[in-house]
SpoIVB peptidase (Candidatus Epulonipiscium fishelsonii), 397 residues
Amino acid sequence: MIIILPIGLLGVSYSNLPDEIKLIVGEEQTLDLNLPLPVQVSSKENIKIKEPMSVILEQEGKAELEVSVLGGIPLKTVSVSSMPYKEVIPGGQIIGIEVHSEGICVVGTGSFNSNGKEVNPCKDSLKKGDRIVEVDGVKINSKEEFKKAIEVDQEKFINLKIKRNEKTIDAKVLPKYCDEENAYKIGAWIKDTIQGLGTLTYVDPESSTFGALGHGITDSEFEKIIPISTGNIMTAKIDSIRKGKAGDPGELSGVINTNAKEHVGDIKENNTRGIFGTIDQDDLNNMDGQAIPIACQNEVEEGDALILADLEGEGVESYKVKIQKVAKYTSEPSKGMVIKIVDQELLNLTEGIVQGMSGSPIIQNNKLIGAVSHVFVQDPTKGYGIFVENMINLDTK
């Protein structure tokens, strides 16, 4: 008997399959591959298959899983990699975040008066969004360093190394004397530091590492992930909550404690899935929460869950949410699930998800499954969540 399948259906099935699946070693997990055809899985390696779609990865490492349809027609080979069983302390604490960019960011350019004439020295050399990383071969990471470099050789060209849209370019600029400020300038508005509020997602007590936010820190001027040179997380106190509404998700406002004693940890990495770094040992020792297991995305299901947040300064509280959609193996890792706030106490406080709640841990079946990452602007009671497996692998070791 010859079986003929629509090419389009096979194509959809193939495209829906991930290239890689992560499983926690030794735990039985049911694979939900979201395919329009009944499928079977098989493997010659260290994967134990108990039912057609129930598997156990028996040891750490990588293996291959053969996915077939209609009793044996090969569809795709999927790589399976291990996630060791891990327990982390879920967060929920509001933290102050301060990052210093790699180089200095150009916010804009403009003209000024020099000896009575209007000049714009960097008009054709710099653009909004550029990052100046070197001046005359010397690395620059602060506005103060840049200012000193300009004033060293007055009325002489300076050589700039600039990063623009992932490319590195060279430029020459001639500083000019500014009548108003009595100093030499090139006509660029720059900044080197960004501060804000966010939520701690988890701390790994074994490695003293943390993850937070569930999305990267971007500059509102450029809407790009900021490469950082250094960064810190600090304690913070909320002083007001602007409730969300359709078209305006609201935000948390507060005070970041910049005193050295309030330093909590160092940020080592900023990327699309969050901020990651190391936490101070004293702060780790003082954390109240109990460690709980992490879950891989195969374990996440639609239905009841909790998020953790400290919105009133009286400690971390849990609030009820519904997971309305689970998009496993999505190409947008920070949008793995859609959650809806259903807890009336939280709705009374915020009307939903507000800016500053990004990173709030999501708990289901007493496991950390992910974190709040984004809010729906037109409906702040809803938002996206990122799977914790997409954050935990980016820890700074």
In short: The mean pLDDT is 83. The two ends are 56 Å apart (CA to CA).
